[in-house]
Design brief:
The chain has 472 residues and is of the alpha/beta class. 35% of the residues lie in helices and 19% in strands. The chain has 13 helices and 20 strands. Strands 1, 2, 3, 4, 5, 6, 19 and 20 form an eight-stranded mixed β-sheet that branches. The chain has a five-stranded parallel β-sheet with strand order 8-18-9-10-14, covered by helices on one side. It has a four-stranded mixed β-sheet with strand order 7-15-16-17, with no helix packed on it. The N and C termini lie far apart (59 Å). Bound molecules: flavin-adenine dinucleotide. Flavin-adenine dinucleotide binds next to helix 1, strand 4 and helix 8.
Amino acid sequence: MSNSLITDYLVIGSGVVGMAFVDTLLSETDANIIVVDRYAKPGGHWNMAYPFVTLHQPSSFFGVSSKELSRGDIDMIGLNKGMGDLATGAEICAYFEDVMRHRFLASGRVRYFPLCEYHGDGQFTAKLTGKRTAVAYRKLVDATFMTIAVPSTHTPNFTVAPAAQFMPLNNLPSVTEKPAGYVVIGGGKTSIDACLYLLENGVDADEITWIRARDAWLLDRANTQPTEAFFSTSVGALAAQYESIGSAKSIADMFQRLEECGYLLRLDPATRPRMFHAATVSRAEIVELQRIKNIVRAGHVTAIESHRIVLHEGEIATTPAHIHVDCSASLERSFGRKKPSPVFVGDCITPQMIRAYQPAFSASMAAYVEAHYADEAEKNRLCTLVPMPNYDVDFIPMTLAMIINQYNWSQDDALRRWCRQNRLDGFAKLIAEMDRDDRQKTDIMRRIQAGVMPAVAKLQQFSAELADGARK
Ligand SMILES: Cc1cc2nc3c(=O)[nH]c(=O)nc-3n(C[C@H](O)[C@H](O)[C@H](O)COP(=O)(O)OP(=O)(O)OC[C@H]3O[C@@H](n4cnc5c(N)ncnc54)[C@H](O)[C@@H]3O)c2cc1C
């Protein structure tokens, strides 16, 4: 049995990207929208997240623009003490469900098809009934492009012997018996979360072995607080970032300066980070993580056997009594295979990152541009892709593209005004409404204005050097 429907926008995916896009489309147009997702609930990968997950950034600029996610609290305890609240996975899922029910569906303009697999060509199938639906649409929104692999659902790219105890970090809360030790596999933010979970729950740091193929540059969460109280830290960090880049003598010198000014952090001062995935941590978390001394840097794991772990560049001993914690779902493998396309191509819209680190804001901006601009070239100019970083040096093209987009947006009065009232922007409102008589704040703004062009020039020079290096 099949069904046919007609809509203005057919949106595939109700993760943060699909939700933020639809929310802005609802605000800015009178369009009808169909949302299809294979999961039972909106929220995308947050439905599969580990029980102790939280946002990495303050809740106040995550989610959809029209509804606040933050409780407005400053954390009084724990490793995020003194900073804006970080929503838990459960809070995020409840939030998206609320947005779906009370805003999207209540509007009468959105129809939602959970538990449905999209096949392309406007066709999807309900997983429980097998019923097929064909949709005639004006525009297709592929809100699945930025999906990322998570440990609970990905397939590791190494073999695991049946005798080995191996689990995604999702299963750590079900451990009931002390193992001989914990081996955490992965160098990204999930591995950081796994290690912090173990330490916070009293596991001795010496009982943790951390396999980190690459170390990463990290962002300081104190610099991401979009509130008055943090103006000099957050907006000041932007000024310091531009100054560090602009005065750098080389790429290595740029990273050194970015670290010295507190824009970038790392776990081990003796190891040069080769990775940059924009993971965000607090300084208290760094101190805690530095208690772990058993760091294995011998490349990626190729096999977990019953009594040894084989890596690209060596092996270490293990036992069936050790728990191996999988945090190896890779951002690189999630994005590496995908070829970015412009956001707007004919009747297809593919929201992607147009402001670094901000999938929610990026999707909301794409919807605003879709609603208010007609010319495809102009739409794509305003939504120029900001490349996803993987290696340390990817920081360079990413930051350059982000600054250029920001400049283009600032030249458009309507867009600038819209950014100010979009809670996902985080900082535009804070800066627009700052007290012009506050000397400290106006000094920071002057430093940003003076620093931006030298930073752009240096990023262009470094990008050219990287391109030259790649050609040789
Ligand atoms: C632990 C963790 C913490 C994070 N913290 C932050 C943070 O603090 N701030 C931040 O900005 N970002 C954060 N991110 C990253 C951010 O969540 C992701 O970049 C973003 O969620 C990607 O969202 P998405 O909507 O593109 O993908 P997803 O959440 O994966 O959603 C895609 C949706 O598409 C559906 N789908 C895919 N294909 C089909 C199909 N064929 N048919 C039907 N449905 C389909 C899926 O079911 C899914 O629901 C975090 C990520 C992780 C893993």
